[in-house]
Design a protein that fits this description.
Blueprint (H helix, E strand, L loop, with lengths): L5 H16 L4 H32 L1 H10 L4 H14 L9 H34 L1 H10 L22 H8 L2 E2 L11 E2 L5 H5 L1 E2 L5 E2 L1 H10 L3 E2 L8 E2 L3 H10 L13 H24 L1 H6 L5 H16 L2 H25 L10
Antiparallel strand pairs: 1-2, 3-4, 5-6
Helix pairs in contact: 1-2, 1-5, 2-14, 3-4, 5-6, 11-13, 11-14, 13-14
Length: 348
C-alpha cells in the first residue's frame, strides 16, 4: 500500500518479500515474520521485567511514602519519582511491551488488509483472462479448514470478497497512484502496489498495473484513466453484478471458516493476561494488590482480539494466534530465568 503510515508500508513489503523467498507459503511467511517481531520485542520485555523487579525491591519504601504523604498527592508524586530515579527505574519502562504491542497490532491489521485487497484484484484479473491460472491462485488461498485465507475465519463470511466490500475500498477517498504527487482527494484503489508495479504470474509472465486496470475497464468493472485520481472500482450496481457473476465460478457462498482462529486468539490473549497477572503477584505482591482496579484492562485485549480476528482476514488472525503463543512462551521462560531461587539481581 502506497502513501500509508510508514510502519504499515514496511510490514506490507516485508510480508510480500518473505512470501516470495519462502516458496509462496502464507503460513511460513506469517510464522517467520512473527518470530522476528517477537525477537525484537524480547529486549523491551526483559527491561520491563527488570524494572518490575527493582520496583518490588523498593516497594516497602514506596508504601512508606504513600503513608507519609497520604494528604499531599503532589509531594507524594515528587518523592516517588525521586526514589524511582535514584534506583534507576524509568517511569515508562514497565509500559514498553504494551506501547509496542498496540501499534504492531493495528499496523499488521492494516498490512494484511491491503495484502488481501491485492490478492482479490489479482484473482479477479486472472479470472477474466486465464481461468485455469485463476483457479490455481484461488486454491493457494486455502489454509487448513479455511477456504480463503483473505476472508475472515467465520461461518458467516463469504468465501470470496463480496462486491460491496471491493467497491467500498475502491471508492474510498485518499491518495491515488497518480503520477502527479500533488493529487490528494482521490480514490484509494490506485494506492495498491500491484496497480503501481504489477506482478509476475505463476507462468513467469509480467503483468503491469496498467494492463490489470485496462482489463477491468474493458469488462465493465472499473472506470477512470489509469494513473489519475478518477480511478474507481465497481462504481455502479451493474459493475457489482458483473463482478458477482464472474466470481460465481468459485462457488461463492458463506461459511469460509469455523471461528477457530478468532476463538484461539481471544483464548491465548486471556491466558497471557492470566499468566502475567500471576507473575506480577509473585514478583511484587504489594503492587499487584494495589492494581486490582486496573485488571479490566488486561481482559480488554482478548475481547478486542476476538472482534478484530472475526472481522479481518484469516491471515491476520493466524498471525495474531502465533504471536500470542510465542508471547506466552517467551513470557514464561523470561519469568522463570529471572526469578530463579538464589539468583542475584545485580548479576543480571
Amino acid at each position: 500500500m502506497i502513501n500509508d503510515f510508514f510502519l504499515t508500508e514496511w510490514f506490507f513489503y516485508a510480508l510480500r518479500w518473505l512470501y516470495s523467498v519462502l516458496g509462496n507459503s502464507y503460513f511460513l511467511t506469517i510464522l517467520v515474520l512473527t518470530l522476528v517481531l517477537r525477537l525484537v520485542q524480547l529486549f523491551p520485555d526483559i527491561q520491563s521485567r527488570k524494572t518490575q523487579k527493582k520496583q518490588a525491591e523498593i516497594q516497602p519504601e514506596l508504601d512508606k511514602l504513600k503513608e507519609k504523604y497520604a494528604n499531599d498527592p503532589q509531594k507524594l508524586n515528587q518523592e516517588t519519582n525521586k526514589l524511582m530515579r535514584a534506583n534507576g527505574i524509568g517511569c515508562l519502562a514497565g509500559c514498553l511491551p504494551m506501547l509496542l504491542t498496540l501499534p504492531l497490532f493495528f499496523c499488521f491489521l492494516a498490512a494484511f488488509r491491503f495484502w488481501g485487497y491485492e490478492q482479490t484484484v489479482k484473482l479477479t484479473y486472472e479470472t477474466i483472462v486465464d481461468q485455469p491460472q485463476a483457479q490455481q491462485t484461488y486454491e493457494s488461498f486455502r489454509f487448513a479448514w479455511i477456504t480463503n485465507i483473505w476472508q475472515p475465519d467465520s461461518g458467516f463470511a463469504p468465501v470470496v470478497t463480496p462486491a460491496n466490500t471491493v467497491a467500498t475500498y475502491g471508492n474510498a477517498q485518499g491518495f491515488a497512484c497518480s503520477r502527479n504527487a500533488a493529487a490528494s482527494t482521490t480514490s484509494k484503489i490506485g494506492n495498491l502496489v500491484i496497480l503501481h508495479n504489477g506482478y509476475t504470474d505463476s507462468k513467469g509472465s509480467f503483468v503491469s498495473g496498467e494492463q490489470i486496470w485496462s482489463t477491468f475497464c474493458e469488462n465493465g468493472l472499473a472506470t477512470g484513466e489509469y494513473g489519475t485520481e478518477n480511478m474507481l472500482l465497481l462504481r455502479s450496481d451493474e459493475a457489482k453484478e458483473k463482478y458477482d457473476d464472474l466470481m460465481k465460478v468459485y462457488k461463492k457462498g458463506y461459511n469460509n471458516g469455523w471461528f477457530i482462529l478468532p476463538i484461539l486468539a481471544a483464548g491465548f490473549q486471556l491466558l497471557l493476561a492470566f499468566i502475567q497477572q500471576r507473575q506480577q503477584k509473585k514478583t511484587n505482591p504489594s503492587a499487584a494488590a494495589q492494581q486490582q482496579s486496573m485488571n479490566f484492562m488486561m481482559y480488554l485485549f482478548p475481547v478486542m482480539s476476538l472482534v478484530f480476528c472475526m472481522t479481518s482476514t484469516s491471515a491476520f488472525a493466524l498471525y495474531w494466534v502465533l504471536s500470542s503463543v510465542l508471547q506466552i512462551a517467551s513470557s514464561t521462560i523470561i519469568h522463570a530465568v529471572m526469578n530463579k531461587p538464589g539468583k542475584d539481581s545485580a548479576a543480571e
